[in-house]
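sanity check this chain:
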Amino acid sequence: MINTRKDSRCSLAIYSTHFTPDGGVWGVYVEGNAVIIPDEEVKNAYNVYFKRRFPETGKSESPPAIHKGEGAAWKFVKIIPSHIYYFDTRFFDEVRQEVPMSELK
């Protein structure tokens, strides 16, 4: 949390771990800024997470104190993308393709 406040730049990659016989790899790569979700948005973030993590229960819960306040042990973070790339070695070799951010708004 402290590092995020000093420098919010971050990146993430999501890719297939199923490799094809020809060694094809595909996925997305995102560059952006990590923002700690403010306390007033924590309940919504918690419920989105809870429903995805435990879809069979279908219930929403109030987040425990561990997620709220300055001394919270766990914080929810959202990433605001500045660049998004997709890659697929089956079609583009080793060159990633940038997604125009204007297409995402």
Q: What stands out?
A: Strands lie at 9-15, 26-36, 77-88, 97-99. The chain has three helices and four strands.
